[in-house]
Design brief:
CATH class: Alpha Beta
Number of strands: 5
Order of helices and strands: HHHHHEHHHEEEEH
CATH superfamily: SMI1/KNR4-like
Helix content: 40-55%
Protein name: SMI1/KNR4 family protein
Domain Knr4/Smi1-like: 47-191
Distance between the termini: 31 Å
Largest sheet: 5 strands, antiparallel
Strand content: 5-15%
CATH architecture: 3-Layer(aba) Sandwich
CATH topology: SMI1/KNR4-like
Structural class: alpha+beta
Radius of gyration: 17 Å
Shape: globular
Length: 203
């Protein structure tokens, strides 16, 4: 799990790499970076106060998982994160997926709701052995949307599946089946940075 100090280092590293990427300097992603972000060399924001976090938890009627809460304490919103996720929401905008994209949920329920639920042996796979299309549609209404739509996708947290108190984290995208799932928000962020570095090395 990442603590606040780890988040500070990680977000600074992501900021440095994004802000030195030609695609984000003068390429087709450049408009995603604001002038003040370039000047500060920082893609984040001031960290959320404890009062702000408690207000968010009261509004959602749930306690946030530790790694995501620590992220918000370090930076109340962030982005762009990579080529696909352009903005992690600040506390004031974080909300349940059913309130922000109910049409999407209804489409999934209509198309896949009649299928049997994914067996545990198939669902609880992470990393290279995961089958992205093995998504449990019944979890969608309980997911927390934590990013804007980026490149036809977004990030969400699923409190119905927890690993050592951390909520399962999803990267949902229209251009791939189901969702890529992680054991925690911290794991998702670590893997996002890893994949971004792999993509930039290939260019």
């Amino acid at each position: 799990m990442m603590n606040s100090t780890n988040w500070s280092d990680t977000l600074r590293q992501i900021s440095q790499e994004i802000l030195s990427d030609p695609d984000f300097i003068s390429g087709n992603m450049a408009s995603l970076v604001r002038p003040e972000q370039r000047q500060a060399q920082w893609l984040g924001a001031t960290g959320a106060t404890e009062a702000t976090l408690l207000s968010l938890e009261k509004r959602l009627q749930i306690s946030l998982p530790a790694s995501y809460r620590a992220f918000l304490q370090t930076s109340d919103g962030f982005g762009p994160l990579d080529y696909f996720i352009w903005r992690l929401k600040p506390c004031a905008e974080v909300d349940w997926l059913v309130k922000t994209d109910e049409d999407l949920i209804q489409i999934w329920e209509r198309n896949m709701g009649a299928l049997p639920t994914v067996p545990d042996d198939d669902y609880y796979r992470y990393g290279d052995s995961q089958i992205d299309e093995q998504l449990r549609v019944e979890y969608l209404r309980g997911c927390l949307m934590i990013s804007d739509w980026g490149d036809s996708g977004f990030l969400a947290l699923n409190p119905a599946v927890q690993h050592e108190g951390e909520w399962e984290a999803w990267h949902f995208a229209n251009w791939k089946p189901g969702a890529t799932r992680y054991r925690s928000f911290a794991e998702l962020m670590q893997n996002t940075l890893k994949m971004y570095r792999e993509i930039t090395r290939e260019q």
